[in-house]
User: Fold this.
Amino acid sequence: MTKALITGITGFAGSHLAEWLLKNKEDLQVYGSYRLRSRMENIKDIQGQVDLVECELKDPRSVDEIIKTIKPDYIFHLAAQSFVPTSWNAPAETLIVNQIGQVNLFEAVLKHCPDCTIQIACSSEEYGQVYPHEVPITEDNPLRPLSPYAVSKVGQDYLGYQYHQSYGLKVIRTRTFNHTGPRRGESFVTSNFAKQIASIEKGLQPPVLYVGNLQAKRDFTDVRDVVKAYWLAVEKGVPGEVYNIASGVTYTIEEMLNKLLKLSSAEIEIQQDPSRMRPSDVEILLGNYDKFHQQTGWKPEIPFDQTLQDLLDYWRARV
Ligand code: GDD
Assistant:
């Protein structure tokens, strides 16, 4: 049986990818790695259908052990410190988890299953400071990272390139733009706002919604479209290449907030919370995904309004 390993299976994208693979690729044995004390809530419905293995990516021995045992045909490397603000408070930890964790994975793959195809979750944050004439952003845009997180992703991206060039490792680099949907972690902007709205609707929070920088522009794709792209990346992508995964549409955070507010009848006041502002914020992300589309046929299918509705309903069922 063909074996696929998802690192970070208990996370947002990891859990959606596992579900998608179980539903659409019946001949695949799905393995997932998780860290000690990870919350299992995202995978509670599929826990019996996947093989879970505990792994600490920062520890070469731990990674070597799982790769030696599983010898996967495909790896979707999604585990990461993925929240930008945390990377200012914990820059070293962010670099270690994201970059050294990936080095540990690559070294283990070289040793035990060098034919494995590895998709690595790079990020549109790598583009960082983007100038107006550069949008929509293509893969050959300069990388001007604006946070330790973004630097960590540039490192992951280039390590993917370098291990391919040096050793022929079959690495496919996906630079995914913002993605959201049910199960999005509550620190991220779409989920944070949706949770606040759901809490206000239930009277659990005064009718004041706290926000950070509303002028930033982001290109959002539904996570359920993104995980399909990850499969296509390993199936049809060219090893060593890098691909943008995006919607090709951008909204200010304020426009996104207004869309969410329209889905609720609650009267809500908006207040800026200075602690939500960043030392430097990426002003605009708008991706060109032509290269990936031409290679794989992928395009985003779920409308943004639907994604936001599903996200709000997710929080309404939880708060
Ligand atoms: N989190 C958060 N909370 N962000 C806010 C808020 C708030 O209350 N108010 C405004 N924002 C703005 C942020 O300043 C940023 O410009 C934008 O909303 C999006 O913030 P996040 O949802 O935290 O995501 P991100 O864009 O920083 O990073 C996400 O996308 C990357 C791909 O571009 C993450 O998912 C990364 O892991 C991913 O690589």
About this structure: The pocket of guanosine-5'-diphosphate-alpha-D-mannose is lined by residues 82, 84, 123-125, 177-178, 187-189, 192, 211-214, 216, 218, 253, 276, 278, 281, 285 (CB under 6 Å). The mean pLDDT is 98.
